[in-house]
Specification:
Length: 521
């Protein structure tokens, strides 16, 4: 056998071993849940249903970790602010901490009020409905992760509850205005995230990158940007991440966030100035100033995600647990510690085993991210949630983060094309036979600020500048069409977003009929 064939065989074997290890670890986790829960509730009637629901809940939690957490740490990894291994460790710690510390002790059983619980005929139907919804959402997330599409776990469980609810009680059980609002979020979430991320990136370019002295500009702007980030994340955590521990209105949360932001601004300003003095007057030097803010952003986003989205895994499980123990249907259910542990450990394990695929997709496959662009995506994630929650708009954190990545990518495309047009305009507007004059003017143009560029172009059009040589027009025109965002991934992700609710709903209805068929006497 040839050496190349042997090497290919060894690589294939290593890949297969890795897949078997991940699969085996996941199965051991679910079997462990089965043994643990069975030992805890052996004397409870219908305990076998709770054991099965707990196993499905663990499977769901693993898929949340594999798919959804990528949005929090993907940009930081893609920009090389932190390694993939470091990001996974960071996310595991803060996701689990958010779930256990701020996940709350009560959860709504009917996610987003998507169905009317009064129309559910009996407790058994409610249990079957919740089990089917949880299983459908988990399977859909698993499929989405396999094809590399980051999707909303909230939309997945909403689709699951909707589908099994309709299967159990008919079309009238659905809250269709809520369904319409969720459908609207398919557009609202990525659009808001993209616009806000692009706006911050343009602000950074205008105030730092497009200045002659980038480092001195960074000394002034970076502490302000970190201050704004501190306000956004403090307010975001108070409103969303810690809402189950303390209740604050928007004004109170904003005021607390402002105090925290001022303190952090005063602390980091001398640190940024000291660090900036060590760096060169170039783009990469400025990028290094965003490393620590990015790491903190990834940690805080992970904490808030663990506090909020653990309910997507344990909510239906807590509902089944409550229904079995109380014998009734409730819109609120307490979360036992063991249920929260299933969610927290499952999310952490799913991230460690299967998270790297989606982290790479979000961090590097959609568009190239440097640290400034990744910082803008993190800012968009926090600020968009704050704005949307105050306007009552339904948004998805997944859609916001991925929309932010697309936003900075499309802004880059626009700025690159606009720059190419300006260069082409300079060369096309004036004809001269002195290439050195052209090169000298172009060097001056490249080094100029945005305002100075505008003045130079204005002077050229007024015939005040040097007459320039017209050349390489075709090459410059090609730059207009440079694609810095991969359209194939854009279409794949958009398609996955659109079909998440209906796909989860259809699977959930099928699972409901299957479960009912097996359990009916």
């Amino acid at each position: 056998m040839e050496p190349n064939s042997i090497r290919a065989l060894e690589e294939a074997t290593n890949v297969a071993r890795g897949e078997l290890f991940r699969l085996g670890t996941g199965i051991l986790f679910i079997v462990g849940i089965m043994l643990f829960v069975n030992a805890q509730i052996d004397s409870v009637p219908n305990s076998h249903l709770l054991v099965i629901a707990a196993m499905i809940g663990g499977y769901m939690a693993m898929n949340i970790g594999a798919n959804d957490v990528a949005n929090n740490v993907g940009p930081a990894v893609g920009s090389q602010a932190i390694t993939l291994t470091g990001a996974i460790i960071l996310a595991v710690i803060f996701e689990a901490s958010g779930a256990l510390v701020a996940g709350g002790d009560v959860v709504g059983t009917i996610k987003k009020g998507i169905i009317d619980p009064a129309l559910i005929p009996d407790t058994d139907t409610f249990i079957w409905l919740m089990m089917a919804a949880l299983l459908a959402a988990a399977v859909w997330l698993n499929l989405a992760t396999a094809i590399g599409a980051p999707v909303s776990t909230t939309h997945s469980i909403v689709g699951g509850v909707l589908g099994s609810g309709i299967a159990a009680a008919g079309w009238q059980i659905a809250n269709w205005p809520k369904v319409g609002a969720i459908a609207a979020s398919w557009v609202i979430s990525p659009l808001l995230g993209g616009l806000i991320a692009a706006a911050f990136l343009y602000l950074i370019k205008r105030t730092i990158i497009y200045q002659r002295d980038t480092i001195n500009s960074a000394k002034k702007m970076v502490p302000l940007l970190i201050g704004v980030m501190s306000w956004a994340f403090s307010t975001y955590l108070i409103l969303k991440g810690l809402k189950k521990l303390w209740k604050f209105d928007f004004l109170s949360a904003s005021a607390i966030g402002l105090v925290i932001a001022i303190i952090i601004f005063l602390v980091v300003r001398p640190l940024v100035v000291r660090e900036a003095d060590k760096l060169g007057n170039h783009r990469e030097g400025v990028n290094r100033l965003f490393v620590l803010p990015l790491i903190f952003a990834a940690a805080l986003l992970s904490f808030a995600h663990g506090a909020n989205d653990v309910a997507n895994a344990v909510g239906p499980l807590a509902a089944v647990n409550d229904a079995i123990l109380s014998g009734g249907v409730s819109t609120k259910a307490s979360i036992p510690v063991w249920v929260m542990m299933v969610g927290a450990v499952g999310i952490a394990l799913g991230l460690a085993l299967y998270g790297p695929k989606l982290i790479r997709t979000v961090g590097s496959e959609i568009t190239e991210l440097d640290k400034m662009r990744a910082f803008c995506v993190a800012m968009a994630a926090a600020i968009t949630v704050i704005i949307a929650s105050q306007l009552g708009l339904p948004v998805s954190s997944t859609h916001i983060a991925v929309g932010g990545v697309f936003g900075v990518g499309f802004l880059r495309e626009y700025l690159e094309a606009n720059h190419a047009r300006m260069i082409d305009e300079i060369k096309d507007h004036h004809i001269d036979d002195d290439p050195e004059a052209v090169d000298a003017f172009l060097k001056e143009f490249e080094a100029a600020t945005v305002v100075e560029k505008g003045k130079l172009l204005k002077d050229l059009k007024a015939k005040k500048g040097p007459h320039l040589f017209k050349k390489e027009r075709k090459k410059l025109r090609k730059a207009y069409h440079t694609e810095l965002v991969k359209r194939s991934i854009l279409l794949k992700i958009a398609a996955a977003w659109v079909i998440t609710v209906p796909a989860a709903a259809i699977m959930s209805a099928l699972f409901y009929f299957m479960i009912r068929g097996m359990l009916l006497p």
